[in-house]
Amino acid sequence: MKSKIIIAGPCAAESKEQILASVKEAKKRQVDFLRISLWKPRTKPGFDGLKEEGIKLLVEAAKRGVNPSTEVILPEHAQKVMNAVLNVNNKAKLLVWIGARNQNHYVQQEIARVAAKSDRVYLMVKNQPWPSLEHWEGIIEHVLHGGIPKKRLILCHRGFLANGHNPLGLRNVPDYNMTKIVKEKYKLSMLFDPSHTGGSVENVMLLGKEAINKGFDGLLVEVHPDPKNAMTDAKQQLTWEQFDTLVKLK
Ligand code: PEP
Ligand code: MN
């Protein structure tokens, strides 16, 4: 697992205590970026993230030598997070990502244009929720058109809406053939998100292990200091001990 890209941490940033506890655990492990998501698009209205208020938490992580990552919805979010995190010191790296629900190609291109401005910023793009090879290729081509270099662009498969056969009751069903086609066509790193595919701790462990064996380039996985009391996605977030078991699985 050493050579894989690991992005791990809470589904959503909730509080300073939660993030400092996560920073401490991430520091002990081979985590490339700590997941600290500030913007949380939701299926139904509810807690939708700390937004700008939480940028200081990403700064706290960077100050402690842990590189932060967050979803951004608009280009100005990417710019604000970059301004804060990159100024902590000249080693801090940042990863911003475009989530599955954010399917406005103009916005995608503009986020890429902002992220492209610093060689310490990485952009991750998740596939859209519905299965369509053409649409997924379109997202990738739009962000490349926005100027993000391939060496700072990472793909992440988070499955597609279940339609029919779903014996494990997955939240979103992976399409391994499609990921292979996309990865080979664009020659980009492809991570796997066992959390939003699995939907339960048991499935996260199962799909995470499967992804490692299938040769994905890494994982984006939700890990919370107190999963039972998480404000979002409580059922699927791992403890750091469960995370350790997962990344040791071969
Ligand atoms: C997320 O990773 O925070 C998330 C909501 O997943 P997705 O965008 O894949 O639905
Ligand atoms: Mn989540």
Q: What can you see in these coordinates?
A:
With 250 residues, the chain is of the alpha/beta class. It has one domain (38-215): TIM Barrel (Alpha-Beta Barrel), CATH 3.20.20.70. Helix content is 38%, strand content 16%. It has nine helices and ten strands. The chain has helices at 16-28, 55-63, 75-86, 105-115, 133-145, 176-186, 194-198, 201-213, 240-248; strands at residues 5-9, 33-35, 68-71, 94-98, 121-126, 153-157, 160-161, 172-173, 189-192, 218-222. The strands form two sheets. The chain has an eight-stranded parallel sheet with strand order 9-6-5-4-3-2-1-10. A two-stranded antiparallel sheet has the order 7-8. Helix 2 runs parallel beside helix 3 (75-86) and helix 4 (105-115) crosses helix 5 (133-145). The longest helix has 13 residues, at 16-28. Phosphoenolpyruvate is lined by residues 11, 37, 71, 99-101, 126, 158, 196.
Kindly report how far apart the N and C termini lie.
8 Å
Structural class: alpha/beta
Strand content: 15-25%
**Strand elements, count:** 10
Radius of gyration: 17 Å
Question: What topology emerges from the helices and strands here?
Answer:
Layout lengths: L4 E5 L6 H13 L4 E3 L19 H9 L4 E4 L3 H12 L7 E5 L6 H11 L5 E6 L6 H13 L7 E5 L2 E2 L10 E2 L2 H11 L2 E4 L1 H5 L2 H13 L4 E5 L17 H9 L2
Parallel strand pairs: 1-2, 1-10, 2-3, 3-4, 4-5, 5-6, 6-9
Antiparallel strand pairs: 7-8
